[in-house]
Write a structure and sequence with these properties.
With about 120 residues, this protein is α/β, with parallel strands linked by helices. The protein has a single domain, classed as Rossmann fold. Helix content is about 45%, strand content about 20%. The chain has five helices and five strands, in the order E-H-E-H-E-H-E-H-E-H. It has a five-stranded parallel sheet with strand order 2-1-3-4-5, sandwiched between helices. Strand 4, helix 4 and strand 5 form a beta-alpha-beta unit. The protein is globular. It starts with a strand and ends with a helix.
C-alpha cells in the first residue's frame, strides 16, 4: 500500500512516516502542499493523508483544485486538522467523492490505521 502524506509540520510527518513504515506501509512525505498536489496529479496513491490547515495553500485548496480538474473522485483522501472544523464543514467535505474520512489532531494511531485500511 502506497500512502502520500501532506502536512506542513515536519515533526508530524516524521512521526507519522516512521509509524507507517513500522506498520509496513510505503509512504511518501511532503511538507509543501503545492508539491503534494503535483504528486497527486502525477502518481496514483492508495491513500492520501491531507492536512487541511496549512498556510498559503491549504488542504481545502488542494481538494478544490482536484475537484475542478475532475481528479478528486479518483482519490482516497483522509483529511486531518488540529483546528476544530465546524461539523457542517466536515460533513460537506465528506460528501465529496474522493474524501474518505476525517481525523482530528492529535491523531490516534489506531484510528489512523483503521482509516487507511477501510
Amino acid at each position: 500500500m502506497k500512502i502520500l502524506l501532506i502536512d506542513d509540520n515536519q515533526d508530524i510527518t516524521d512521526l507519522l512516516s516512521k509509524f507507517l513504515e513500522a506498520k509496513g506501509f510505503e509512504n511518501i512525505v511532503t511538507n509543501d502542499p503545492r508539491e503534494g498536489l503535483e504528486r497527486i496529479k502525477e502518481e496514483k496513491y492508495d491513500v492520501v493523508l491531507l492536512d487541511i490547515s496549512m498556510p498559503e495553500f491549504s488542504g481545502i485548496d488542494i481538494i478544490q483544485t482536484l475537484e475542478r480538474e475532475q481528479i478528486l473522485r479518483n482519490q482516497k483522501i483522509i483529511i486531518f486538522s488540529a483546528l476544530a472544523l465546524a461539523n457542517l464543514q466536515v460533513t460537506e467535505l465528506l460528501k465529496k467523492e474522493g474524501i474518505h474520512g476525517c481525523l482530528k489532531k492529535p491523531i490516534q494511531l489506531k484510528e489512523l490505521v483503521t482509516a487507511i485500511t477501510n
